[in-house]
Amino acid sequence: MVSRRAAPEACKILIQRMMSPQPVLQIRDLSVRFGADEVLQRLTLDITVGETLALIGESGSGKSVLALTIMGLLRGGTISHGEVLLHTGEMTHDLTHLEEAAFRKLRGNRMGMIFQEPMSALNPILKIGTQLGECLILHRPDLQTRRARQDEAKHLLASTGIPDPVRALRSYPHQLSGGMRQRVMIAMALSANPALLIADEPTTALDAATRLRILDLIRTLAAERGAATLFITHDFGAARAIADRVAVLYSGSLLEDGPTESVFANSLHPYTRGLIASLPDPAALHPDPKGRMRLTGMPGAIPSLRDRPNGCIFNPRCPLVMPSCLGAPIPMQSFGRTRRAACLRPDLQAVLP
């Protein structure tokens, strides 16, 4: 496993970020529609240099739609409100209105993405060396010779923990294990040292041991390069392992946002509490009188896009619902210096300093 101790360069980046955090990605009041259906509703999020933000939510909550919107890969949907800004050094790119030609210059260069299933993302009829080489030709003009690109490709694969990079470069995707294929995807996503890395459920198809190694690898390599990382998952346990901060998405709406350990220790929104209570962790398991183990679950299901409730979008499933939760939509509110939640419970006003 890759050590979680950051390299000296990464430590410098983290210290600089703590002293003066600089946003890499700014999402402002973003709404995305597919026809009449609003999939994302007025999202506002920032990710700073070197930070890992985990976006958590059930299937169908809009997580992948947000990733595809940022990358300019959304098909059939439109941005109906708000803006998405990418900051790269002295440049600011408004991704909301960017033309496809401009997006192609940013993808793989200033924005990298690790997809959920590498067998679908990798070309099955091309060797790994050919596919990684194409990334370097497109996005690394400093590597002017074939030999330089081959050396860099070997270095990239070695940095992801692949034990025999030369053999991997000569292999087709089906000749590698799932973990090795995902390491190749990580190498490709980081090949041009992007300012923003998006990882969309990158460990879904992996076994538990490999999943932990891949999470550790993503976090370590992103920190070494100072990349801001958007980690998309439905797994709160994975988020806790990799993220500095978490944002909780439910049916296209943001319900809570804050530092990871703070959210785990003191969740503000009932939905977040329900997600944490449902984790397959010994602390969340309760034996019944016959000695069997059962998980704590949440009643109900995520609403359809065309049947969202009035007021708080979670109110039909919320155990703490109040009359005031049934009127107008509930905006995100600040609690203390680092926490936000879309909740009206009066006790929250005294929860945080």
Automatic annotation (TrEMBL):
PROSITE patterns: ABC_TRANSPORTER_1 (PS00211), ABC_TRANSPORTER_2 (PS50893). Residues 25-276 form the ABC transporter domain. Keywords: ATP-binding, Cell inner membrane, Cell membrane, Membrane, Nucleotide-binding, Translocase, Transport. SMART domains: AAA (SM00382). Coiled coil: none annotated. GO terms for molecular function: ATP binding. It is found in: Cell inner membrane. It comes from the Bacteria. InterPro entries: AAA+_ATPase, ABC_Ni/Peptide_Import, ABC_transporter-like_ATP-bd, ABC_transporter-like_CS, Oligopep_ABC_C, P-loop_NTPase. It is a peripheral membrane protein. NCBIfam families: oligo_HPY. Belongs to the ABC transporter superfamily. This is ABC transporter ATP-binding protein. It comes from Gluconobacter kondonii.
